[in-house]
Amino acid sequence: MSDTASGAAAPARHDMVLGIVRKDHVQRYSTLVVLVLMFIVFSLTVDRFLTSQNLLNIAQQISMLTIVGAGLTFGFAAREMDLSVGFTVGLAGVLVPLLLVAGTPLPLALLAGLGAGLAVGLMNAFFVTIVGIPSLIATLASGSILFGINFLMTGGRAIYGGLPPAYLWLGQGRILGIPVLAFFMLGAVALAWFVMERTVFGRYVYAVGGNQKAAELSGVQVRRYRAASLVVCSLFAVIAGTLLAARLGSGQPNAGERYLLDGLATVFIGMTMLRPGTATVLGTFFGALFIGIINNGLNLMGMDTYIQSIVKGAIILVAVAIVSRSTKLNLL
Amino acid sequence: MDVHLADIVMQFPGTRALDGVSVTFRNNEVHGLIGENGAGKSTLVNILGGSLQPSQGQVMIGDKAVRLSSPHDALLQGIAHVSQEGSLVPGLNGAENILLGHEPKLAGIVIRKGALQRHAAELVSQWFPKVSIDLNRPVAELPMADRKVIEIVRALRGSPRIVILDEPTATLPAREKEQLWQIIRSLPPQGVGVVLISHFLSEIKALSDRITVLRDGRHICSEPAEALSEDQLVELMLRRTGGAQLRGAAASTTQADAPLVLDVRDWHVGAVHVPHFSLRAGEIVGLIGLTGAGHFGFARSLHNPAGARCQTLTIAGKPTELGPPRKMQDAGIALVPDHRMEYALIGEWTLRENLSMVHPNHGTIAGGILSPRREETEARRVMKLMNVKAHSSRQLLRELSGGNKQKISIGKWLYGASDRYRVMIFIEPTEGVDIGAKAEIYAEMRRLAGQGVGIIIASSDLLEIESVAHRVIPFVRQGPGPEIHAADFSESTFITAISGAAA
Residue ranges of the ABC transporter domain (chain B) (predicted)? Predict the structure, then answer.
């Protein structure tokens, strides 16, 4: 039948590139190398880039994005895409300030924000796993619904004035000179990493995304984990939204919108590295850094935001091209 | 002109599916191609039909070497392939299916319905004047034999010199077979050679002018059909070097009074009906049958009973309700499925992660938190037990050979649990597995049985069944036939039992 020896392990062989670097290392780390190079180039060419103030600034700018991305990573790991995530950010971003302005105590308002996230996540999960609509379509529709709700709640206006200082501190304060937001970001990354890499829950989410049929035949309750991944997406999104409004000092119904595209971009960039083709929390974190550094660098160079948008779109295309060439990227 | 395959070698990662096969197919004969599962029949016809490109060797038409880089290429060279599964569009009618992609059009855009029906009807009557098929009905509503005829007519559209028919009668009820047989016989006189693959030896014998036997990827012989008896064919297909050593320890008989680990009554799944099935601790029961006979469906449904119903299900003495795989596992049923990369494993995962997929909780510290150290220890234990050849438990699964992958697929059920399962179901447990690993997998099954696990093995490798099973249940037309006991085991008994009434 076969002449392959089953009696001896094949020797460790690695495809090499240019005879010096292992091919799998190139796949895993080239995006990181690009990230470092970009950092160096900006440091050398842009005046105010490499200052502690600016670096903290970047940390602050990417913290919400990272949190949204960490949530999306759960979805991607289970092969579910949440396109409502931007509007979910917006939902918390208006709901929490609205409640606070109306005099609700801070802890209660924060809980209400989380509750809203849970509700959105469960709604998405219901349509995806019980009704059976592909997540891409179900969340596109629920996003539209949320968009409407956000504007209805605020009448289209920003909510400001009367927000308690303790709330604003979450988005603007510093501890030992480091933005509070950065702690939230690191906390979210650490938590998401731990859950994905070190718990049975994370293992099952990856199993469902890795091979749904095999997971099912191994006794994984596939639906439950697909649903959970969508709920986690929404929960991370409302946390980001709550922080976003605190940072802006006002609740703006459309402030969350850019987090959809940017969030997807961080995950896609993350999928080009570490475990190519798989969404990982650390990959997403580096993806957010990537986006943050580009935005910041271009900003300091005086590029206008439309150019940034073009650059970002191009990066997403490149990242997705890399991912789908090396692996079977199949999200629908 | 003849089509000649010369010294064809097909190397897949881990297995050599064809090893220097040479055979000539003529356009005035029905050429039967036989061999047991894994002998290389499918690979050979896939090369002939352009779906696969050989690692070595040549396809010659007449005395010209050709490259068949796609089925379309093969078609242009006059070789058409009618696959086993069927390739009709169910919602279209017969005529539309026959001329799919070659519809007569008005101004190149609008399909001319009338001309299409006429043209299709002409094709049918040109090739098979005696056949009448309703070409206006959606093919989904036609009898299986008519659908097959439509597929064949479509294959004949370009007047090929060779038509490959892969198990054309496997899905047909007995009374419809005769019609198809006549059609097959009528082709060579019209200058179209037929390459026929079939599990039914009597059919091969009755229809073929010449018969080629493959075994383990090697060409055994090509002889005129009348020169070989069915017994000789079975002998040629199955006698193999290494067979004796695989058999190893003779199947030990189990205690007739061992406790029942599984007992089901009136099990229905799809069209399959099993009035009664029981399995004792330590027993290995083989399920055999032709494609579509229902043995695979029955075996699978015991672990994943979606769509199944039954009167009673008793697992290890406890009456159990049907439920999703998770529930059946908790009740003590494990499944090692076929097509492991599709149904069992994740290629991009490490061996350790794959092994822990069923029982990740074993490797946890508390509350669902995984301990890499515990996982590593357990993964190593299972890899050692199963004799998995790999650099480490951190290696990616996709890098392993077929045999080692299969060992991981089995090992999943032993990770964190040596005696959790009372019933283990194996489907095609050695498909794409080399001979050394085969023997190890059989030994593992015997070891598990020795520990009191009841084992069900559904396989199309009859030699495998003969060497590991204690008793065999042949499936014919969606249900079990009379049981075969170890004393009566032989390939020919098996083949008679599974084809018998149907042929």
Answer: 3-241, 246-502
A-contacting residues in B 21-40 (Cβ below 8 Å)? 38
In terms of C-beta density within 10 A (0-12 exposed, 13-18 middle, 19 or more buried), how is residue B193 classed? buried
Please give the DSSP secondary-structure letter assigned to residue B253: P
- Given this model, what pLDDT does residue B283 score? 93
Q: What is the token pair recorded at B2?
A: 């003849």
**Which residues in chain A are closer than 8 Å to B391, comparing Cβ atoms?**
9, 12
Is pTM beyond 0.80 here? no
Host H or E run for residue B428: none
| Residue of chain A nearest B405, judged by CA positions | A6
Q: Dig out the tokens for A201 from the structure.
A: 């829950």
Q: Are B358 and B413 in contact (CB under 8 A)?
A: yes
The DSSP result for B127-141, as a single string, is H-TT----TTSBGGG
Type of residue found at A220: V
* pLDDT tens digits along B264-291: 999 999 889 999 999 999 999 999 987 6
Distant-in-sequence, close-in-space partners of A299: CB < 8 Å, separation ≥ 6 = A308
pLDDT at A7: 38
Among A193, A210, A222, CA closest to A280: A193
* pLDDT tens per residue, range B34-55: 887 668 888 899 999 998 899 9
Using one digit for the tens of pLDDT, what is the confidence trace for B344-364?
999 989 999 999 999 988 888
The C-alpha of B104 sits at a distance from chain A's nearest C-alpha, in angstroms, of: 36
What are the beta bridge partners of residue A250?
Answer: A160
Query: What are the CA-CA distances from residue B371 to residues A197, A205, A281, B304, B364 (Å)?
Result: 10, 17, 19, 30, 5
Chain B contact present for A217, CB below 8 A? yes
Q: Collect all residues with Cβ–Cβ distance below 8 Å to B377 and sequence separation of at least 6.
A: none
Q: Answer whether A182 touches B (CB < 8 Å).
A: no
Cα of B391 to nearest chain A Cα, Å:
7
Instruction: Please give the structure tokens belonging to residue B203.
Output: 């059919």
Residue B217 sits at the chain A interface (C-beta within 8 Å)? yes
The percent helix, strand, coil of chain B (3-state, each to 5) is: 35, 25, 40
Separation between Cα atoms, residue B204 and residue B3, nearest integer Å: 20
| Phi/psi-derived region of residue B106, left when phi > 0, alpha when psi is between -120 and 50, beta in every other case | beta
Contact B263, B385 (CB under 8 A): no
d(CA B78, CA B68): 11
Chain-centre distance for alpha carbon B25 = 24
Nearest residue on chain B to A277, alpha-carbon basis = B348
| CB burial readout B8-44, b (16+ within 10 A) else e | bebbeebbbbbbebebebbbebbbbbbbbbbbbbbbb
Which positions in chain B touch A207 (Cβ < 8 Å)?
346, 357
**Confidence check: pLDDT of B6 > 50:** yes
Average pLDDT, chain B: 87
Q: Is B326 on the interface with A (CB under 8 A)?
A: yes
Between positions 231 and 290 of A, the ones with CB within 8 A of B are 275, 277-278
Using pLDDT thresholds of 50, 70 and 90, give the confidence band for residue B248.
very low
First and final C-alpha spacing in chain B: 33
Q: Are B326 and A221 a contacting pair at CB < 8 A?
A: yes
The verdict on a CB contact (< 8 Å) between A214 and B357 is yes
Contacts of B217 in chain A (CB under 8 A): 1
Q: Tell me the DSSP string of B400-411.
A: S-HHHHHHHHHH
Angle at which helices A135-154 and A106-125 cross, to 10°: 150
> Chain B residue with minimal CA distance to A14?
B399
Element (H, E) at B169: none
Cα distance from B81 to chain A (closest Cα, Å)? Answer: 25
